Amino acid sequence: MADSGSTRRTVDSDPQSYKLSDLLKCGWKIFEEVDTTNEPIGSNNVQLKVKRGITALEDVTRMVAQLDLFSRNELLEEIATTDLKYILLPALLGGLTMKLTNRDNRLEIVSKAREYFNEFLRRCKEYNVSDFKLPESMMEPDKESKSTQSPAKSTASSSSSDLVAMAVQRQAKIERYRQKKVTEDRLVEIKKAVDSEKADEEVVRDFYLLTVKKWINIALEETDSIDQELEILKRMDNPTGPPQCKHPPRPPMKPFVLTKDAVQAQVFGAGYPSLPTMTVDDWYEQHQKRGVLPDQGMPKRVGVGESADAKDHEDEMKDKQVENDDEEALVKARNWDDWKDSHRRGYGNRKSMG
What dihedral angle (degrees, nearest 10) is formed by the CA atoms of 337, 339, 340, 343? Predict the structure, then answer.
């Protein structure tokens, strides 16, 4: 295990440290600008920034490899605080590589980004930065050993193992999301102090460790999505399904216009059972002559004004008959008066009145 007297050189002791840190800061800043920009990710301006950031981070990666900053024989506590930020190099490279939008080389871009994220996760696992499980795509030996099992045994346990795997994966995503929120809230609190360069070494170390933990969650999510995209891209390049029969191309149809003429009427009809042979007035006159109209033979309804005039006229005629001493009219009037005296108004009309 490396100690303080190791021959490994730190960034602070190297004359290229300022250039190295500046390049890392440049690439990191470009990623943050591209990740929060409102411009389309496929625009020329954004793509030029992405390529410039990738170039800067690749230069830093080569310098770090020459300086031999990290070793598998040391613990996380033995890494200098000024060197912790260089653990993020593969993660930043993977994030920027995923921002490239070249469709022709999409398979190559996605594969390269996965290599960056896998390298970052493997290094974090070696230093035990956080408690997480490596993606299944990084467990190639385990997959090969599982594939050598008998088909009957694998088929019998496939259903139960799939359910267990889905439950474990769901729980892991929930836990990653919770850790991500806690980490982001903590980073917001100490980021201002680190940017102002007034924070002590303990705060700076805590800031870089929290940033690494944040990127672990991002790398795990990106790796899952990359694996799914890789399957789709490989199937697009090498389709395995049965060849689909291609129908011969149909000749283009000539445009036609329907016109309202006699030919159209003969083909499609008028749109209703029959054409009219007479007008409504002709029909009414014809039925009136035959005397078969519904209102023929029925008494006409008299209006309100006409009925009042007829009643007044009838009363005048009765008065004149009484004045002329018409005996029949006098007898009828006297009988009516006697009947009204002995019978109250409404007598005999007791319908619906109990």
Answer: 160
